[in-house]
UniProtKB/TrEMBL annotation, chain A:
SUPFAM superfamilies: Sigma2 domain of RNA polymerase sigma factors. It comes from Algibacter lectus. One of its GO terms (molecular function) is DNA-binding transcription factor activity. InterPro entries: RNA_pol_sigma-70_dom, RNA_pol_sigma_r2. This is RNA polymerase sigma-70 region 2 domain-containing protein. The lineage of its organism: Bacteria, Pseudomonadati, Bacteroidota, Flavobacteriia, Flavobacteriales. Gene3D superfamilies: 1.10.1740.10.
Amino acid sequence: MSEKKTHEDQKYIDGLLKNNSFIIQAIYDKFVPKVVNYIKQNSGSRDQAQDVVQDTLVTIYNQASEKGLKLTCPFDAYFFLLCKRKWLNVLKKTSNKEVTINEEVLSKGDEAQELAFETSVFGEKQALFAEMFEKLGNACQDLLKATFKIKSMEEVAASLNVTYAYARKKKSLCIGKLTELVRESPKFNQFNN
Amino acid sequence: MEKENYIQFEEYLAGSLNQVELEVFENKLKTDSAFAEAFQTYKNLSHYLSDKFGNETESEAFKENLKSISSKYFIQKDEAVSREKTSKNSFKFYKYAIAACVIVMFGVFTFGEFSNPSYGDFNNYDTISLTVRGENDDLLKTAENAFNSKDFASAEKAFAQLIQIDPSNAELNLYSAISNIELSDYDKADELLTEIANENSAYKNKAIWYLALSKLKQEDVLACIDILKTIPEDAEDYERAQKLLNKLD
């Protein structure tokens, strides 16, 4: 992926990551109207469109923050495909009947498809990780929060009133427990290949 | 996986395995697919947790900002849509509209409140004070005096020299940008202001406000509106920005 050329629209990704209000406003002014239209034409409301757009931007932000997302296609196509995918998932969850989708406005381009797919899988994984984290016992949750917030294991050990060696061992066992929860979940096998 | 495996994963990621252990570990990654897959998930989870809890403050700030821009955007659109609907649907509304127009006209002639706003309505700066005991006092004094007496050409000359000495000083850059707006050197002004606006300093919101005013002076009303919308509620110039927005819209 690093071999591919970064698109000039990377400025939107960087702007989101820097929490730059100009860029966020520009994304709403330039790219959001198309998404709202699409969702309204496909049995959605404006409020639902607002949620889909917001969730999508948070997923992009998270991927940029955690994985250093590099945009290799126009932001327009990428963003639209992502919102569309997210909306289809909402429809699938809320209705059991067959979903008919107006395909006319679909943006073409393999690069955008590929990247949007990657980001939505990232988002789904994150949601699964968050869900499984909640299933951990309180002791593990607190230890992991402290570990990744404070960063120094010595300080973590002191703040939890345990020894350094114990805190370190406990950290790996807690992430281990989380690893098991994730690997055992049926959802995990859907996107793990 | 055994507990020992997870302890080993952590040691590998922390780089605390010795040479022999490292070779055994990497060999196992190549040959044992269940081991490799568990390790990959463990590593992904570590990255996830590290980003989630390590950057919690930044991420929360982003979400807050996003929420406020999003609701502003959707509320404005809603208002536009409902305005359109009422004017289309109700015939009676005409009467009220005419009455409103009369009142507005009255307002325009009486108070001049609704006249097109211009840059001149806003460029009443407070006097600035730059000198602190230290180096470059003379130059700072020159800049300060020139700016306060509205001799922007001399002020800009002094600011340019000061910025050469202290390029990252947001305050100096801001005043230099204002001088450039006054001198109608918009490219330079806008570039300086955008830079300050994109960084985190005490002058961030001031820079956004002046960038909007620069666009107003250039008669680029659309750009001015777009920029005004990004001024956050806690900014000193928020009220003024909202007033200007109402007049421009």
